[in-house]
Write a structure and sequence with these properties.
single chain, alpha+beta, four-stranded antiparallel sheet, about 15% strand, about 240 residues
């Protein structure tokens, strides 16, 4: 028989629980309590066993998302999960508090893993930057020709094959672009690249001014109109 709503203490000491790196563990101490909230006898063989198991599972679920190099954050997260009374079974309520530590060997492994991950991230970032730059060059017909001639001066006759193979290659999408912004930017880049004659440029600027005015962007429309205005030979555009 257990007294209703009477809290019974429990302790788990020197528990080893996996961090975000499965082979690296926290050293965990949990102090907690369980209480029986139903009137009448406890219908479990040993509620303390179930309470300890529940706290152990809750702590492990949280800690596997954290690193031993940041004990404070991991401990706060674990306590947020355990300190509120929870009910693992009908009539049984459990709560606890966590204290964390990490052995020197575990901390050393976690720090080495972080260094390797950082180096891999830097290498990946540099490679993605290089590829994006190459895509930007190859997507621009003028830059593509210059790049090819500079890279392969003895293979100029193969340039037409390259341009055929790369036809329709889009400019790289900037990471911060949302879908609409990226689509507009790519379309505008393609349109400007396709303008080869003064007449095409004139039609584009007229349409741009009208669109900006319709959208109420009068300052931008004025700036576009300045580009649109003809200049005397030899003069400097406004």
């Amino acid at each position: 028989m257990a007294d209703t709503d009477t809290a019974h203490p429990l302790i788990l000491s020197d528990e080893r629980m996996a961090s975000c790196i499965s082979s690296v563990c926290f050293t965990v101490r949990i102090t907690g309590s369980w209480r029986w909230t139903h009137p009448g006898p406890v219908d479990h063989d040993d509620p303390a066993v179930q309470a300890r198991d529940h706290l152990r599972r809750q702590a492990a679920k949280v800690l596997c998302r954290h690193s031993v190099v940041d004990l404070a954050a991991a401990q706060d997260a674990a306590n947020s999960a355990l300190m509120q009374w929870s009910r693992p079974a009908s009539g049984l309520e459990v709560a606890g508090a966590v204290e964390l530590d990490a052995r020197a060997a575990d901390r050393g492994l976690a720090e080495e893993h972080a260094r390797r991950q950082q180096a891999a991230d830097l290498e990946h970032g540099e490679e993605m930057h290089r590829l994006a730059h190459l895509q930007r060059v190859l997507a621009d017909p003028d830059l593509r020709r210059v790049w090819w001639v500079a890279r392969f001066p003895d293979r100029f006759n193969e340039l037409d094959e390259l341009e055929t193979a790369l036809e329709g290659l889009p400019l790289p999408q900037e990471a911060q672009d949302d879908d609409l912004r990226g689509d507009i930017r790519r379309l505008t880049d393609q349109l400007v690249t396709a303008l080869h004659t003064p007449q095409q440029r004139e039609v584009f600027l007229q349409a741009l001014v009208q669109t900006l005015q319709a959208l109420g962007q009068h300052n931008l429309a004025t700036a576009a109109a300045l580009w649109h205005s003809p200049h005397d030979p030899g003069s400097t555009p406004a």
